[in-house]
Amino acid sequence: MWQALYEELRDRNFVVIAVALDKSPDDARPWIEKAAPTYPALIDTQHVVADLYNIVNVPTALWIDERGRIVRPNDVVFGTDTFKHVTELESARPLAAVRAWARGETTGFAASEARALQMLPTALDQQARAEFGLAEWLSRQGRADAAERHFVRAGELAPHDFTIRRGSMPIRGIDPMGPQFREMIQAWGAAGRSYYLPLPDTRG
Amino acid sequence: MDGPRASITSSSPYGRGGNAMFTLIEPDRTREVAARVEAGRVLLSADALREGLGWELHEGTLCNESMCVPLRAGSRLGEGGVFDLGEIAATLDRPLAVDVDARAAFLGTSAGERAQALGSLVAPDFTLPDLASQPHTLSSYRGKKVFLVAWASW
Questions:
Q1: What pTM value is reported for the model?
Q2: pLDDT tens per residue across span A70-81
Q3: 145-164 of A, contacting B, C-beta below 8 A
Q4: Which of A111, A197, B20, B126 is 20 to 30 A from B52, comparing alpha carbons?
């Protein structure tokens, strides 16, 4: 996924940290093993990072500088152009931007610009995450019917949060690539909403 | 604390057997607390609130060992020795998801806290395992440029 980028830039004091928002390590494992990363490839079954960073879909990438500051907030960055025909988002420009930043040729956004580009969570977003957290716990307890009610409620509270609406599908035994997903995306598009939210300079 | 409380007296609003355990899940921990469910409300005694969750009502404020939060205007939290979990969550401005049948609730992080943290542009810290179950902490990579990417098999 990102191994080529990492190998190219690691001696520039640069690291990739990949976080899988998957229901179990087993779901992420085939992809990770194929990528054979030497950077940290982490598993986040409880969507901790989605909550901390207000991540509402994947793939979402952000840049953090050497002092631990966000210098480029949540953006849509694909590692390849495999899905370009579907997403209409090319990978080359965002990846070139990461390289330029890692090489010290650019510095990322100034604080005021970075803040202006951040989407901050609302009370409804956080209520949805609480419903998702409860649903995830219930499903681990084997209480599938109860979990389903709370997954559905979470999706109603935050219809733009696809880490909830699509990310819950594997837990609920729904194919995340299947008809229910396609129906969800069609309805979203018909309502004039975008499935991906790239930053302005990524969208181009 | 000295140990488990003696059995609840007959003058208690709960009565014996009224307080089965209730699971309270938070992002960083899960605890069991004695509570009863009445008309969809999850009710705790002052003792259960203090022993189970570490919160106490003190002169109109809800306090734990590190902070005090004023009660909301018109709040009846603690009246009659009864503490409604929903009112506790609202006082703390934190989201609460409840399943009374499963006797479980998730108390999440407030939007205000998350927004303030993100607005500071300090990257929130976290620790997560890799496939070998080794923990990795974001802040241990301080001094490097980090490209943090969230992805999924879905």
A1: 0.92
A2: 999 999 999 887
A3: 146, 149-150, 153, 163
A4: B126
